[in-house]
Amino acid sequence: MVEKISIILFSGAMDKLMAGAIIASGAVANGLDVNIFTTFWSLLQFKKSGAPKPTLSPDAGNMADLVMKTMKEKKVPSWLDTLKQISEIGNVTIYGCAMFADLMGIKKEDLDPIVKDVIGVSQFVDMSKDAKMTLFL
Amino acid sequence: MVEKISIILFSGAMDKLMAGAIIASGAVANGLDVNIFTTFWSLLQFKKSGAPKPTLSPDAGNMADLVMKTMKEKKVPSWLDTLKQISEIGNVTIYGCAMFADLMGIKKEDLDPIVKDVIGVSQFVDMSKDAKMTLFL
Amino acid sequence: MVEKISIILFSGAMDKLMAGAIIASGAVANGLDVNIFTTFWSLLQFKKSGAPKPTLSPDAGNMADLVMKTMKEKKVPSWLDTLKQISEIGNVTIYGCAMFADLMGIKKEDLDPIVKDVIGVSQFVDMSKDAKMTLFL
C-alpha cells in the first residue's frame, strides 16, 4: 500500500498555505501520496473569483515585509502554483470541506479545478487514519 | 483496541475551537475515540466564569465578519455545544493542561465540567503516542 | 527502535515556541526522541543575532499581558532554555529549514548552536514518516 500524508488547511494566510504546499512537495519527493483538506479560511483562497486578498499570518511578526519582498525578488512560486506543479508529478488530491462550502454557499464549480471534490470532515478523517502524518495548518 | 485521535487545543480563537470540535465530531462519526488536551489560550475558554471574550483567529483575514454573521444566521452550534453533544455519543475525553492551569491559578472546579481531569503534558503525550493522528490547533 | 516524535516549528510567536518546547519536554519524559524542524518565522528566532523581537500569537486574545506578566513573575524558563535543558537529558535534534535559510541568506553558523544541521523539508518528512506524531506549530 502506498504511504500517504494528510494536510488540513485551515488558515487563509499566504505563508501558511505556502508552508503546506512546500511540505506536500517534500512528501511527493519521498514518493508519498498527499491528501489535502481545505476548510474555513483556506477554502476561500481556492475560489476562482472573489477570493479574499491573502494576508500574512501574524506568526510572521515584524519580519513579514522583508520576507515577502525577498520572496518576490527571488520569484518563489505561489502556493497554488506549487500545488499544481506537484499534482502533475505525484498523487496530490485536494478536497474542499463540505460543511464550510455549504455554509458559505460555495459550490465545487466555484473552486479552482485543482479541488477534486467536496467531502465531509468525517470522510477526510477516515482517509487520514492510516496516514503517516496528519498536519493542521 | 479502539482506535483514537488526539487534539491539542492551544488557540483560544473561536474559529479554531470550532474546527477542533468539528474534527472531533468527524472522528466520533468514524467510531474513533477522541482525547483533547486544552492548554494555554484555549484553557481559558473552558473557564466557567471569567473566560475571555473569544476572538477570531487572524487566519480569517478580512472574511471574518461575513462568515461569523452567516454562522449566526444559520444557527451553527457553538464549539462547546458541539463538544458536549459528541461527548454523549462517543468517547470524547477532555483534559486540561496542569502546567498552564497551575501557572494561572486555575483549578479543575473552575473549568466547565466537560473537562474531565487536569493532567501533565507528558501524560497526554503518552496517551497520544498510539493515536491515529495528533493535531495541534 | 526508539520511538520518536516530530515537531515543525513555523510560528515565531513566543507562546507557540514555548508550547513546542513543553511538548518536546513531555516527549523526552516519556523516553521518546524528538526531531524539530524550524522554518519560516521560527527560524528567525534561532538567529544568534538580529532575531526579531518575539511577539505573542493572536491566539492569546486579550489575555496576553496577564499571562506574560505571570510567567515572568513565576520565572518560567524561556522556550530556548527549555530546549537546551531537555537536549542534555534526551535525544532532541533541531534542524533548520534549508529552503527558508537559503531564501533569507541565513547560514548554519548564524543560528544558535542548538540547531544541529540545515536540511531540506523532504529529508525531514522522510525522518518523520515513522514518528508517533508530527505536529505543526
Mind telling me the C-alpha Rg of chain A? 15 Å
The CATH superfamily of chain A appears as DsrEFH-like
Number of strands of chain A: 5
Shape of chain A: globular
> How far apart, in Å, are the first and last alpha carbons of chain A?
26 Å
CATH class of chain A: Alpha Beta
Summarize the structure.
The structure is a homotrimer of 137-residue chains. With 137 residues, chain A is an alpha/beta fold.
Give the secondary structure arrangement, pairings included.
The structure is a homotrimer of 137-residue chains.
Chain A: E1 4-9, H1 14-29, E2 33-38, H2 40-45, H3 64-73, H4 79-89, E3 92-97, H5 98-103, E4 115-119, H6 121-128, E5 133-136
Parallel strand pairs in A: 1-2, 1-5, 2-3, 3-4
Helix pairs in contact in A: 1-4
Description:
Three copies of one chain form a homotrimer. Helices cover about 40% and strands about 20% of the residues of chain A. With about 140 residues, chain A is of the alpha/beta class. Chain A has a single domain (about 5-135), classed as DsrEFH-like (Hypothetical Protein Ychn, Chain: A). In chain A, helix 1 packs parallel to helix 4. Chain A is globular. The two termini of chain A are about 25 Å apart. Chains A and B meet through helix 2, helix 6 and strand 5 of A and helix 1 and helix 3 of B.
Question: Which tags fit this structure?
Answer:
homotrimer, 137 residues, Hypothetical Protein Ychn, Chain: A, 5-stranded parallel beta sheet, 5 strands, 42% helix, 20% strand
